[in-house]
Write a structure and sequence with these properties.
The chain is of the alpha/beta class. It has three domains: 234 residues, 2-enoyl-CoA Hydratase, Chain A, domain 1; 247 residues, 2-enoyl-CoA Hydratase, Chain A, domain 1; 44 residues, no CATH class. It contains 23 helices and 20 strands. Strands 1, 9, 10, 11, 15, 17, 18, 19 and 20 form a nine-stranded mixed β-sheet that branches. It has a seven-stranded mixed β-sheet with strand order 2-3-4-5-6-7-8, with helices on both faces. β6, α7 and β7 form a beta-alpha-beta unit. The longest helix has 26 residues. The two termini are 23 Å apart.
Length: 577
């Protein structure tokens, strides 16, 4: 009978990195983390104190107050897509839409993790802006794929009409929300909705398809609001009179229950969640209890170099993410530019695939080494096989990306990297096991795709304040753009000072533009990544995501660890070694 035996990984900070380098990394990472915290708080305030006071004057809670009341006491809320629309302005006079006017987050209720979608009632009465539908749909997708309950806190005045062309007609525009509602329902995923204020036009369909629908006394659901009906039918009415709880709870039967206020609504939603089956996570822990790493996750702030050109030992990062800092590394003697293995996070098994940044021995030329952070033939084959084995065994996969791309040149082409890379792309495209992608620093070129970047539909893609997401670095692209003006050493060849200055300025402009494009906040703003998380918070997010991957029963194959194909892989790798 095979047993999973995990081994200690990692060393104390003073052994892992020099004291001076650690202090410098801590200082620079602290500055970047401060930006994350400041921007989070800015977004959380919505349109500011004036609009918070307006909500309170109506006897209602703000969206964040509702979330705080909804969660289990002492638990953490994990927002996703916080920075959507960050820094953008719409209309005249220009207005911002913090977090696209909707909060999406993972919230623990009676021990079960749920996906919560809540209109921000401090931002244009919770209306839908450009990117609001896509953000809602992304949260619904997580609920659908992991089969965890989805909760809607609806307080929405409908589409922001001046920007309707950007939200209404597209394939994944506002209407796709209701298709996702339907797919969730068809898959048996519980949906609970609370209408706590406005619910106008298409927004009304979102709560209607839910399994349970509550309305407060201030809430109404209407196809068209009173202003529109008055104009079209010359009737003196209010939205509450045509679509309040009197109508929808007692006449139309479009809602199930009326409650007096926000606090009672939150209580009733919590009661409904409590009726659902409990989490299966404890069952799949196989007797293990979640445990902290031996080394603090906060130490990652000093271990991960802010300068993307500086190498580090990724095993030290893994040691600060996995329970007890225990890890079973497989196939460690082949494809050494990649690290693959099994650990536990929150007491639950996960597969981890990470880029090794350090120099590694060339497998054929014993007197040569190869730089890390690239994909070579052996590493590609290794992670393809490991990914398939995780999928076969039902083990969620965490990708720790710090990738510059695929190897290039004559040797790479002779080794058939295109074919091996296609095999990896196929594997990750057809896997059904939950995959979570973390972009530690670099996420470049086709390597980003091959290691389950966002186009390959991970459950979630997390960036850090260091993440640089692009096809190539700015300097490299500038060299390519001005290649005809450079010699073999990439030096400007002209002797004309005016021409030289022009080329230098052009290269600097290209490099600057690409560097700006690689800002993680720009990627998060346009939903090219799901969330920006300080590195010391990575374990907390991963704990929630891994637990969600195991919470529901019966929707995917999860093998008993005794019969993992991973054991066969280990034996064969040891034999080959």
């Amino acid at each position: 009978m095979s047993k999973v035996i995990l081994h200690p990984i990692g060393t104390p900070v003073e052994e892992a990195i020099g004291e001076e380098a650690y202090a410098e990394n801590l200082k620079r990472m602290g500055e970047l983390n401060d930006v994350v915290f400041q921007r989070r708080e800015e977004i959380r305030q919505g349109w500011g104190p004036e609009y918070i006071d307006r909500v309170h004057a109506k006897g209602k809670l703000t969206t964040w107050e509702r979330l705080e009341a909804l969660k289990d006491p002492g638990s953490t809320i994990f927002p996703i897509n916080t920075f959507v629309n960050y820094g953008l302005e719409f209309g005249k006079p220009p207005r911002t839409s913090p977090s696209a006017g909707v909060v999406t987050a993972f919230v623990r209720i009676h021990g079960r993790l749920t996906v919560v979608i809540a209109n921000d009632n401090t931002v244009a009465s919770g209306s839908w802006w450009p990117m609001t539908p896509e953000k809602i749909e992304r949260a619904q997708e997580v609920g659908l794929r992991l089969r965890v309950p989805v909760i809607y806190l609806v307080d929405c005045s409908g589409l922001n009409l001046p920007e309707q062309s950007k939200t209404f007609p597209g394939r994944i525009g506002a209407g796709y929300i209701f298709k996702m509602n339907s797919l969730l329902s068809a898959s048996g995923v519980p949906q609970i909705a609370g209408v706590l204020g406005d619910c106008i036009a298409g927004g009304g369909y979102m709560p209607i398809i839910s399994d349970k629908l509550f309305m407060t006394e201030q809430a109404y659901m209407v196809i068209a609001g009173a202003a529109l009906v008055k104009g079209g039918r010359s009737q003196k009415i209010t939205s509450l009179s045509i679509g309040g709880p009197d109508v929808h709870v007692h006449l139309s039967n479009c809602a199930d229950e009326r409650v007096p206020d926000d606090s009672t609504m939150i209580m009733r939603i919590r009661q409904e969640v409590e009726k659902l089956p409990s989490s299966a996570a404890a069952y799949y822990r196989h007797g293990f209890t979640p445990a902290d790493p031996r080394f603090s996750p906060r130490e990652i702030n000093g271990l991960l170099p802010v300068d993307h050109r500086v190498v580090y030992d990724v095993r030290q990062i893994i040691a600060r993410l996995v329970d007890n800092s225990l890890f079973w590394e497989l196939m460690q003697h082949t494809g050494e530019e990649m690290v693959t293995g099994i650990g536990r996070i929150n007491g639950l098994y996960v597969g981890i695939i990470a880029n090794n940044q350090q120099l590694t021995a060339h497998p054929e030329l014993k007197d040569r080494t190869r730089p890390g952070g690239l994909l070579y033939r052996e590493g590609i084959a290794k992670i393809s096989q490991f990914s398939r084995s995780c999928n076969s065994d039902g083990i969620p996969i965490i990708w720790l990306q710090d990738i510059s791309g695929f190897d290039i040149g004559i040797e790479a082409e002779k080794h058939g990297l295109l074919g091996f890379g296609s095999n990896l792309l196929y594997t990750n495209s057809t896997n059904t096991v939950p995959m979570i992608t973390v972009l530690l620093r670099k996420a470049s070129g086709a390597g980003y795709y091959a290691e389950t970047g966002l186009p390959y539909e991970p459950i979630l893609q997390i960036s850090t304040p260091l993440t640089r997401l692009a096809v190539m670095e700015g300097r490299t692209l500038a060299i390519g753009a001005f290649r005809t003006k450079l010699d073999d050493n990439f030096q400007i060849v002209t002797e004309d000072p005016d021409e030289r200055a022009k080329v230098e300025a052009g290269m600097k402009a290209v490099e600057g533009r690409i560097e700006a494009d690689m800002d993680p906040y720009k990627a998060a703003r346009q939903m090219d990544t799901d969330e920006i998380v300080p590195v010391h918070e990575l374990r907390d997010y991963l704990m929630a995501l891994v637990e969600m991957s195991y919470q529901s029963l019966g929707y995917r194959r999860i093998k008993n660890p005794r019969i993992w194909s991973m054991h066969d892989l280990n034996i064969l790798a040891d034999f080959a070694g």
